From TrEMBL:
InterPro entries: IorB_Oxidoreductase (IPR052198), Pyrv/ketoisovalerate_OxRed_cat (IPR019752), Pyrv_flavodox_OxRed_cen (IPR002869). It holds the Pfam family POR. The chain crosses the membrane at residues 7-29. This is Indolepyruvate oxidoreductase subunit beta. Keywords: Membrane, Oxidoreductase, Transmembrane, Transmembrane helix. Residues 13-189 form the Pyruvate/ketoisovalerate oxidoreductase catalytic domain.
Length: 191
């Protein structure tokens, strides 16, 4: 039986979503999975919407995840989770960063950032893990490590003990950031 898993990463440009996806893919490939990935960058390199779709299993024919098909959504920014929630399976897992990045329209005061985003999500989705990745990243000494903390939260849920995630980090991250990224993944896995 070819059971394909569908993972959707959503967030804002500059949050390290593509790097997190590449580490996931690298680990899955080295564990023998067939993997496909699709990525979409928003209008702005920094601040625009970014998504990556990762599908893995024995044999994967397409990188695209349809609505109501994601086994997990990892939202690096909480509003992005609301934008993509239609892609989550009814029994899927939502891992959301309790982090706010105001859009250009919010910054220009044309729109207001919605209130009670996390509460709204929890009222509609039963399987939600909320991570305050910014707080955890500050404790590690680098706010940019939020992406690896979020990845760690996902990896805990995927339960893939055969994958060497430290090796995947080493293959995708500059040497001077390897230890920080491995530690950040461990923090995410322990939340």
């Amino acid at each position: 039986m070819n059971r394909v898993k569908n993972i959707l990463f959503v967030g804002v440009g500059g949050q390290g979503i593509i790097l997190a996806s590449k580490i996931l893919i690298s680990g899955l490939i080295s564990a023998g999975y067939d993997v496909k990935m699709s990525e979409v960058h928003g209008m702005a390199q920094r601040g625009g919407s970014v998504t990556t779709q990762v599908r893995y299993g024995d044999k994967v024919y397409s990188p695209i995840i349809g609505k109501s098909s994601a086994d997990a959504i990892v939202a690096f920014e909480k509003i992005e989770s609301l934008r993509w929630i239609d892609y989550l399976k009814s029994d899927g897992k939502l891992i959301v960063n309790d982090y706010k990045i105001p859009s250009a329209t919010v910054l220009s005061e044309k729109e207001k950032y919605p209130k009670n985003v996390i509460e709204n999500i929890k009222s509609h989705i039963k399987n939600v893990t909320v991570i305050n990745a910014a707080e955890e990243a500050k404790r590690l000494g680098n706010i940019k490590s939020q992406n690896m903390i979020m990845l760690g939260g996902l990896l805990k849920n995927l339960q893939l003990p055969e994958v060497n995630w430290a090796k995947a980090v080493r293959e995708n991250v500059k040497e001077r950031f390897v230890d920080l990224n491995i530690k950040a993944i461990e923090v995410g896995m322990n939340i």
